[in-house]
Structure formats: structure tokens, C-alpha cells
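Q: Could you predict the 3D structure of Glutamate--cysteine ligase?
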Amino acid sequence: MGLLYLGTPLVWEEAKKYADHVRNHGITQFLHIWDRFKDRQGDELLWGDEVEYMVVSFDDKEKNAKLSLRQTEILAKLSAIVDDIGADCPDNISIPKFHPEYGRFMLESTPGSPYTGSIPDLLSVESNMRYRRNLARRHLNPNEIPVTFTSFPRLGVPGQFTEPYFSPSDAVSSHSLFLPEEITNPHARFPTLTANIRRRRGSKVAINLPIYVDEKTPRPFIDPSIPWDRDIYPEDSEAKLGAAKPDHIYLDAMGFGMGCSCLQLTFQACNLGDARRMYDGLIPIGPILLALTAASPIWRGYLADVDCRWNVIAGSVDDRTEEERGLKPLKENKFVIPKSRYDSVDLYISDDWINRPEYNDNPLPYDEIIYDRLRRHGLDDLLSRHISHLFIRDPLVIFSETIDQDDTSSSDHFENIQSTNWQTLRFKPPPPNSPIGWRVEFRSMEVQMTDFENAAFAVFVVLLSRAILAFNLNLYIPISKVDENMRRAQLRDASVSNKFFFRKDIYTNTSSTSSTASSSGGSSPIDGMPKKKEKKMKNCFPPRPQPENGFTHRFPVEEEYEEMTMNEIMNGKGVDFPGLLPLINAYLDTLDIELGDMVKIRRYLDLVRRRSDGTLLTPATWIRNFVKSHPDYKKDSVVSQEINYDLLKAVDEIERGVRKATDLLPVDYEGGNTDRGSIGF
Ligand code: ADP
Ligand code: MG
Ligand code: MG
Ligand code: MG
Ligand code: MG
Ligand code: MG
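A: Sure. Here are the predicted C-alpha cells for Glutamate--cysteine ligase:
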């Protein structure tokens, strides 16, 4: 989440009067940034992760695992500790940062300063994550632990799922049937966001996840835990009037989505052009890594037939009106908008010649006035469309104290819209007054239960982003196919049961009608490998060679891609498609890495490989199996209080290495506390 301002938030009826003001000044702020930084060159590789936790409070007598609502106290304590930790912090670890998140049971942590492109930094990610986790852990109550679990299984069940208990009847912001007001971070921004989404939309949000149908699941499944006849808020009747669908798990509040935890990575690019290339290169990777990190099969006490959080969050902040959703003709609103403001990206933005216009085949409503303004200022078509597409959204939270800003030194109005477009990738311009460059944030992954796994996926993505730039890889497929992959990625067991659209011919760097390109359409990375190995991961690469005169693309777009299994995407298919892991290995061969370090890197890549070939389970499958084999499970899709308690205990034990889970983790996984000694615990 962005910076939190203290101030007076406007209710929706007031806020909406300032929507154009915020958009106009937001664009002015962006253009100041543009003028100052568009030609900036030579930024080094800096990158960092964000890990989100939920604080679970165990009641061993009642056998209940609940969400602890002590975020405010915990963060105050952590920031006091972090302030005087200085000298105690191990050499290779910067003083961590802890941030608030939407849920009052959540924490987020980031490294105190970003990692560089050095190999020691790459290999410090796991210990950095562990240090942060252990720091949080040490400053919780004895019965509390920070878990990196994507969705809390019993969020919103009848009875007590928070510590302390609050009744959902007091949900004045969300009007939820299931979640109390106190589930939400008390800072004014969050209740306002929640209420303004509901007010703007004209109803509560409504998410329906297909229930996982087991032997004894009643059919049709009409959820007995919904208080169908509650009569406190005007929206209470929505459930029985059709918002809650049979055979589905119904969720009705922002907290169900924004209460999920994820793993995000941000990379600084050498310059604007490379940031655009990296953004595009990672777009098709979003759904692939969502499927591979799938970790959320349980919702509101039921097993679902999906494995991922993505669509839940998309639905949980979907502020589009009926007109915008295409249910009514446009009258009050300007656009029919196909997606929620939390969703997959809609536009490739690189000005690289390999970005064929045909790939941008999604409908793309954009604000034409803003588009024209950007074009007149000198921005190209794609970036102008990108920004003016983000700017079709209204600002949701406006503080009366910060309506008027100095547009040369502030980016708040820009960020107000930018940072409430929660998409699979985020293109981050430099902040106005800082040494930070153009960055790309990768946002699709679910958080993993151990920092070994979180580090493995972080290492995988950073190495892949390097390989994409170093080898000039071409991963483009039509963006509508990326969206189809997003849909498939969330289905139960997607990574082993589904195929995904992926590009076959990924070396288009020398492809040209008159060139002597090989039959695979280009040269493999190995051909052009430098003789001298690099000491660290570079950030700046020579530009892609321009095609020769008379160039045409070799294939029609439809012939450039096909459906592949996860194993094929990761490990290769036939002679032409090498697979992402072999490409990363080829990239590693260009670096000067000590043997011991290489062994560690391989261990991370091996986790990714074994996930993708199915020899290790996704967290979602492991969790589902745990529930299904629990003695208290009645084959009726219900995840009881006791199952949830045992599950979270097991997750904690696995993380600490005191319980083995060899179908989830490599046999030699030793647990998160093994390096306690070396980091001063
Ligand atoms: P947000 O919540 O807006 O996505 P955070 O501040 O929570 O952002 O996390 C940003 C991440 O980017 C952190 O991991 C941080 O270490 C990293 N980071 C900070 N500065 C840079 C930079 N110049 N380039 C790349 N990453 C950076
Ligand atoms: Mg976060
Ligand atoms: Mg963050
Ligand atoms: Mg954040
Ligand atoms: Mg932030
Ligand atoms: Mg982030």
C-alpha cells in the first residue's frame, strides 16, 4: 500500500466532485516526472521483494486458529525495534521495513534497502526474508505467529475467527454479512476505500467461487452459513435476491480479497525503454507463475474448486457501476469497462519492433482527452494509451487536506489513480524527488508458506527478467491469450492439469526475410555468449538489433504460439523451444559464479522445476490434500475449526522444519529457524 496520510477522507458523494481535479493534476504530475526522467540512463539493477503475513493467534484449549487484530500495536512495536536494531543487524541484511496492509491481521515486510545485481545479494534474499519473519515472530505474543498463507481458511465463518471477537453486524463500511468492521485496518484510508467502492458501485461487491464438490457435499449446495434473512443494512437482501449463487461460496466484502497475502517483486530498469521491454516480457509470465504458486483453495470455511486468490481480489474491489459493467445503457458513466480495477494488464507498452500491434487485442477503453494531452506533450501512442487507460478510473480516497498540491514536487494525485489500478504488472515511474529510476513490479504470485519457496520464486523471476533482456527474448503472445491463461491458472490443479498459451519461437532477434536466420527463426542465446563472464547481473544491455530493410514478421501471429503444459514451458519442448529454466541456466553461464553459490541457486531453480513437472505439489494441492485426509473432514467440503487449527499448526511446523512435507518441499529443507544462531537469535 502507498503512503498513509493523516487527514479527513471525503465520503463518496463529496469525493466524486474532485475526480476530474485529481485526474488532471495527476497527469500534470506525471508529465513533470516524464520531462525530468524520460531520458534518464544507466540505472543499476536494484530490486526488492514484498512479503505479506497474517498474524495467527492459536487457542490450544479450544483448538482454534484465529486472526489476531493487533496490527497497530505490532507495527508500533516493530518500528520501535527497527529504530534501534542498527548494530545488531547482520552485515548482509539491511534493517527491514514493516508496512501496514488492508487487513488488521496483516503485516507486510520489505528489505530495508533494495538488493543489487550481485550474486551475494541474490543469495541473501532467503536469509533476509527469514530475518524479517523471525523479527516479527519474536515480537508477537507467545501464542501468535506470522504465517505467509495466501487466504485465511475461515475468514468470515459464523462464530469466532478473529481475536478478539467482533460481530459482523457492525460492518458500517462494507455492510458485509460475514466480516466485522474491525477486520479492516483502522486508518481512515481503508474504511473509506471499502465504503466508497460499495457506494460507487451501487451495491456490495459479490464474488462467487465454485464449491469443490466432494462425495457428501449437498447438491445443490445452498450455503447454510449465510444469514439469508439478516436485516441491518439495506444491502442485506442482496444475497437472497441472487447475489449468492447456488453451488458457490459467496463473498461480499473487500476484506475477502485485500485480506489475502501475496509475494511481489520490483525491478529497476536501466532506462525507460528497458522498463517497457521488461514489463512486456513479464506479462505472459504472470499467469504461469500464478498457477505455479497457487496457494488458496479454501474460502469462508469451504474447499473451493479454484486454487488462487486472483479473481477474489478482482471482485472484492470491483467498483464499476452497472452501466460500466454493461448491464445498463451508459447514462451517468462514460465507459463500458470490461475489467475490475484489480485485474490483469490490458496493454503491451514496449516501443520495440517485435511488439506487433496485433498482440494488443483486448478492448481498451481510455480517456481520449487525457490521451490527446499526453500525445501533444510528446508521448507515443502506446504509453499514452497505457496511462489514459489507467485514468478511466475514479480516485476512491481523497483527503480534504491534500486536494491542492504542488504538481512539480508531488505525485500524490498521479499515485492515487496509479496505485489503485492493481494489475498483474505495474509500471512505476520514478518518484519526483528521488534517485529512483523506472521500475517494473511483478504482482501475480501467491505467497508461499516458507521463505525458501518465496526466495526461490524471487530468484527465478529476477534471473528470468535478466535472461529476457540479455538474450533479447521475444515472449509476446496476444494479450487476450494471456487473459485466458489467467483464467486457467486459477482452476484447481491448473499447473498439472491445464495447458497454457505460450510462444514457440522466442528468438526473433535476427529474424528477417533477407537474413540467414536459422530454421528456428533466430539464434539461440548460447551462440552469442560473451567469452568473459560477468561478475554481477548487469542492468544495461545493447539495444535489440533493428530488422533489415524489407523485413516482415516470419509468421502470422496465430502461428507464433501454441498450448503447452507447465512442464514444457519451464523445461522445454522439442528442439525449438528450450524452456524457461534452460534459458536461465544459459544466462547463469554468462556469469562468474562460485561453485558453492551455483549450488544454492540451483536448489531454488530445482524447486521451480519440480513444481512444474509435478514431482512437488503446489501449496494449494498440499492444503487441499491435508484437509481431505484430516480425520475431522466429512467429505462435505467443510473446513472445520479443528481442521483449520491443525492445518495452521502444520504450516508453522513445516516452516520451522520440525515437520516434514516431502511432497511440498525438497527432502533437505531444514526450516526457517536453522540460521537463527547466525543472525543473533
Ligand atoms: P509498493 O507497496 O508500492 O509496491 P513497497 O515500498 O512496499 O512498494 O516495495 C517496493 C519494493 O521495491 C521493496 O522491495 C524495495 O526494496 C524495492 N525497491 C526500493 N527501491 C528500489 C529501486 N530503486 N529499484 C527497485 N526496487 C526498489
Ligand atoms: Mg502489500
Ligand atoms: Mg508494499
Ligand atoms: Mg503494497
Ligand atoms: Mg508502498
Ligand atoms: Mg507492491
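Q: Anything worth pointing out?
A: The pocket of magnesium ion (ligand 3) is lined by residues 50, 99, 108 (CB under 6 Å).
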